[in-house]
Amino acid sequence: MPVVRGKNIDPLYTAEMIAVRNIEMAQQIAKGPNNDLLVIAVLKGSFIFAADLIRAMHTTGLAPEVEFITLSSYGTGTVSQGVRIIKDIDSDVHDRDVLLIDDILESGRTLRFAKELMLERGAKSVTIAVLLDKKVKRSTDLEADYVGFECPDYFVVGYGMDVAYAFRELPFVGIVTGDAT
Ligand code: IMP
Ligand code: MG
């Protein structure tokens, strides 16, 4: 089992599995709405997935423009949670097909906020691609249009995803299982 920063990391989705799914998802995206397509990566956790997915999209013949938005959730537990924009996109989404890319769909609050924001700004369509779908944590009716893997309810790291900014560099998705001995 890989050891990183003194922790055992149990791989859940290998780099090979992710690469195969990225191609399959890109092929699905190519069949969806993609006129004057604007990809918006929801930072930070999606940066590696987005980088790989847009290159897989290129192999299917898609030529999107690419933008970034940084969103942050606030409030925890019983406190009602909201989402705010830390850094907005610069592009106009009016009349364009938009594809939001994020790492994990959990409660759905982050992506619901982003989707509603882009629709309010006049996007023609807003579709959503996520690497991982944690369905058991959903508290909204939001669903993704393209899902890499249904994810069990573990806290996962790697492939862009972090715990306290660490483990983003791992080429696979894994679970921190404890201290290496
Ligand atoms: P939600 O769908 O608004 O609840 O939030 C999903 C976001 O929470 C994701 O984009 C991640 O940034 C973060 N997140 C949720 N679960 C995990 C995890 O297991 N590892 C790392 N980040 C996570
Ligand atoms: Mg995120």
UniProtKB/TrEMBL annotation:
Single GO biological process annotation from the record: guanine salvage
Taxonomic superkingdom: Bacteria
GO cellular component, one term: cytosol
Assigned keywords, A-Z: Cytoplasm, Glycosyltransferase, Magnesium, Metal-binding, Nucleotide-binding, Purine salvage, Transferase
Chief subcellular location: cytoplasm
SUPFAM superfamilies: PRTase-like
UniProt cofactor(s): Mg(2+)
Single GO MF annotation: hypoxanthine phosphoribosyltransferase activity
CDD domains assigned to the protein according to its UniProt record, in alphabetical order: PRTases_typeI
Domain Phosphoribosyltransferase, first and last residues per copy: 13-162
Pathway annotation from the record: Purine metabolism; IMP biosynthesis via salvage pathway; IMP from hypoxanthine: step 1/1
Gene3D superfamilies on file: 3.40.50.2020
Catalytic activity: GMP + diphosphate = guanine + 5-phospho-alpha-D-ribose 1-diphosphate; IMP + diphosphate = hypoxanthine + 5-phospho-alpha-D-ribose 1-diphosphate
Subcellular location: Cytoplasm
Presence of the UniProt keyword Metal-binding in the record: yes
Enzyme Commission designation: 2.4.2.8
InterPro entries, per database record: HGPRT, Hxn_phspho_trans, PRTase-like, PRTase_dom
Protein family: Belongs to the purine/pyrimidine phosphoribosyltransferase family.
PANTHER family registered for this protein in UniProt: HYPOXANTHINE PHOSPHORIBOSYLTRANSFERASE (PTHR43340:SF1), HYPOXANTHINE-GUANINE PHOSPHORIBOSYLTRANSFERASE (PTHR43340)
Name of the protein in question: Hypoxanthine phosphoribosyltransferase
Organism annotation: Pararhizobium antarcticum
